Predict the 3D structure of the following.
Amino acid sequence: MEKEIGKNVSSGAKKVKRVQEEKAKKPVKKNTAVKKASEQAVKREHAAADERVKAAKARAQKKEEKLDKKTALKQAKIEKKAAIKQKKLEKKQRIAEKKLARKEMLAKKKAERLEKRAEKKAALKEKRVEKKAERAARKELLKNESKAEKAQRIAREKKEKIALKRKKQEAHAKAQEEKRKAREAARVRKAEERKHKREQRTERKRSGGFGGWLAAVISLGTACLVLATVVTAGAIRMNEMQASGENSTRATLYEMVSASEELDDSLSKLRVSSGANEQRLLLTNILVDAALMESALEKIPVDQATSTDISAFVNETGSYARTLLAKLARGGSLNETERSTVAYLYEINDKLYTELNDLMTHMKNKDLRSFVNGKQGTVSEKFGELGNETKAEPEEIVDAPFTQEGNVGENRLARFEEITSSEAENKARELFAAYHVREVKFTGETVTQEVSCYNFTLTDENDVEIFAEITKNGGKLAFFDTYEECTTKNFDLETCDAIAREYLKGLGIKDVEAVWLSDAGMVANLTYTAVEDGVRIYPEIIRIRVCEEKGRVVGMDARGYLLNNEDRDLDASLSKAEAQKKLTRGLEPYAANLALIPVDGQEVLCWEFACKYADGEYIVYLDAKTGDEVQLFRVMQSAQGSYLR
């Protein structure tokens, strides 16, 4: 035991040695902090290297993109230059072709001129040769002429000269007389056409009636144009109006001029516009201008009566424009009556503008100042006349309902094959054989959206001209008119009706009913509609004119019949009694029948009631399915018979 303890206890030197040996055997541990720092440095270096690589790649890519862009721009520039060069070459080629074509055309014309000149020269030469031969023959004849024969020849030639002179004078007188007759016939024809147009102008009445609207529109047009001329004629000189009241009135007049000019422009465009979008825009402008006019009118120093008259017209015009806008919004379109109204309004405006422009051009400054100060003078009197003019109503009348509707729905003429002008001429000769026609002239074509026709002027044995239109599709007689006077009443309306029906039978038209008979001078105006199962088909309307002196048809318009003729399924939901109950109280019907009428380009089956109300007469159309009032006419009386408003 003691020996073991002694072995374990060594001297200090041995202990030191042993410790060193143990240390030598143990691995040397690195400092942790140093190691971490070294690793982070390596990582940073790697990251920096990666960033440098990325930056180098980005620079290389940017350089490459720049190079590509430069190359693309260069290529585009080259292509643009090539395109410009190509265009120049094409333009140069076109110019060269145009020059060549012009050169060829000029050469052709020159050749034609030379050819005509040569032909003319040859004809003159031939004529000279003929005259020379005639002179030679005459000279030879005169050589052997005796004294007596010479005297006889001279007397004979003298008589021939006198006869020739008289013949020329008679021919000249006849030509002058024919010209006079032609001018007179043209004057009569134009007068009849103007009268016919006036008679055809009508407007459908709404719940409030169209009469007020129409009067308002016409009155507004006159008001607008008068107010426009007050300023536009140059009569108002701004540098002479220094008082504040005058300046205020001047500004108001300018405001009215602006509105009235815009209104006149819109009305002028509306009379020829056919697009629904453009019409809506124009009607909207009319609404706005009417409001501006009403606002300015309140500031004008005119008397109360005149202001009230003009203001009423302005308001009614706005109302009428609003009504037409509503019609367009429902998918409808402006009919011929509405277009005629707009055209009539424009004509009135133009006439008043011409008259007032002359007045305002020569107006003195004191007259304008008197007007501004509310005193009587030239301008005040003219505004007073304007108030009276706005009360006038146009002659918007027709002699039968629905005479201006034209094509409703599908064009039925399109189903027929087209014929040539020569075939149409033969057809015209055949149709007017009973008129003893001695000459037929083809005068061209009439092409419209609804129907295309060949036009002919036929002359009978008495030199009376007949203008006729034969449809290109089917060769039907669509229209004709005769310009001859009827001065004596030898036939009454009943006989003229029989004559017209017989004429229609000759055209193959049998199932018709007379819906309107009237006299215009010595000519009977008869309106017929097709009848199907007792229903009047107003889209298939025919107008006939019969001379009450000679008892023959002198005019016809069958375009409505030709455009709309077809078979239909007609079924009324309401009976006559049920529909009659829906009439306004006080209307007393004395005739009723079913009728198919055109409404906004569509056919509507209605009950047609001829009614009396107090001391007036009306024709009312009620929808045969709903009983709603569709159309209303007022029957008026004149010296020429009844007409509708």
